[in-house]
Amino acid sequence: MAEITISPLKEGLPFGRRVGGVTLAATADADIRAQLKELFVAHGVIVFEGMEACDALQVAVSNVFGPLKEHPVKNLSRVDADAYPGVVKIHSPGGSGGLVSIGSTQLSHWLPWHFDHAYNDELNYAGVLRATQIVPEGGLTGFCDGVALYNGFPKDLLARIEDKTIIYTLNVQYETMRFGKPEDFAVLSSKPVPPGFEEEARRMPRALHPAVWTRDTGEKVLHVSPWMCEGIVGMENAEGDALLEEVCQTVNRLSRELSYWHQWSPSDMVVWDNTRVLHAVTGHDPALDRTMQRTTIKGDYGLGRFENNAAGGAILSETTV
Questions:
Q1: What is the pTM of this model?
Q2: CA 154, CA 161: separation in Å to the nearest integer?
Q3: How far apart (Å, rounded) are the C-alpha atoms in residues 95 and 97?
Q4: Does the CA dihedral 79-83-84-86 come out positive or negative?
Q5: 152 phi and psi, to 5 degrees?
Q6: Comparing C-alpha atoms, which of 43, 7, 296 is closest to residue 147?
Q7: Which UniProt keywords are present, listed alphabetically (predicted)?
Q8: Strand segments (E) across 105-146
Q9: Domain 5-319 indexed as CATH 3.60.130.10
Q10: Would you kindly state where each structural domain of the chain is located, as residue ranges?
Q11: Of 33, 80, 130, 183, which alpha carbon lies 20 to 30 A from 21's?
């Protein structure tokens, strides 16, 4: 049997593991696959180190955790839809826009804390990410566990949000981000989007997800995405907006202690549980290029829905490839 190494993700962090020694052959080993799946359920994030940098290994690692799912936005670039279905290319070219400033620092392609597909009724189970073009500074990807957030959240605030349902839309522009903006935040240029993206977004109904949900393990998860959230069901007013802003800013504050930020190497790959873990990106020098590749793992926690039981699934089925 192939052997792998396992170590904590970061000293004192209540989630995540590092794994070394995973090869293409190891992904076909039934015992290794079972061990990796067990680690993932328990710890929510796995950083694979010392990997061969190739598309085939990314797909093989992804399939350990479940079947691949095409991204629901058809206009995102694919690596090779025939040879490697489900592998999406996320290219951030220098000078392409998506420019913000936080304090005195200008950043390209910054992303706030979020979970993927919040705008959909069905969440993907997991994401797998690797870097194919790295910037020398910045461009870190952060991960923050919702179980740790729930356990660390102020009890009075938790009591006010725990039974609430959050509204989300497919809204990627910084200018219209409503909640959880950092201090001294300013938008310098809009985030670039593929042709037809905004029209596609307008066609989609609003999605609804619980602020807190309970895993099969009995653990409760604080799962609020500051990015793309629009309000609280039944509280789309000043009171509800103030509550949601307080929750999002508390997520920002607690994440300083409860997060892991990954500095990318071409031999790294990261898988995270999208139903449990928030992620973010620091941004980088606006003049530089950065390219990531990701796969999306099928699965759903079964608690999301579209507003008014809208037929959003039909819309999404039209956008898949």
A1: 0.91
A2: 11
A3: 6
A4: positive
A5: -100, -5
A6: 43
A7: Dioxygenase, Iron, Metal-binding, Oxidoreductase
A8: 105-108, 111-114, 126-133, 141-145
A9: yes
A10: 5-319
A11: 80
User: Would you state the structure tokens that stand for residue 95, as one six-digit string?
Assistant: 């000078």
Residue 54: both structure tokens together: 């190739």
H or E stretch covering 314: helix 312-319
Going by pLDDT thresholds of 50, 70 and 90, the confidence category of residue 314 is very low
Cα–Cα distances (Å) from 304 to 124, 287, 318, in that order, read 11, 39, 20
Phi-psi region of 189 (alpha: psi -120 to 50; beta: other; left: phi over 0): beta
Instruction: List all residues 6 or more positions away from 276 whose beta carbon is below 8 Å from its beta carbon.
Output: 44, 145, 146, 147, 215, 221, 223
Give the pLDDT band (50/70/90) at residue 147.
very high
Give the model confidence (pLDDT) of 118-130 as tens digits: 999 999 999 999 9
Token pair belonging to 311: 């037929």
State the DSSP string of 257-282.
HHEEEEPP-TT-EEEEETTTEEEEE-
Q: Is the pLDDT confidence value at 179 over 80?
A: yes
Quick one: 184 exposed, middle or buried, by C-beta within 10 A (0-12, 13-18, 19+)? exposed
Residues 6+ apart with CB under 8 A from 105: none
pLDDT, one tens digit per residue, over 41-83 is 999 999 999 999 888 999 999 999 999 986 555 555 555 555 4
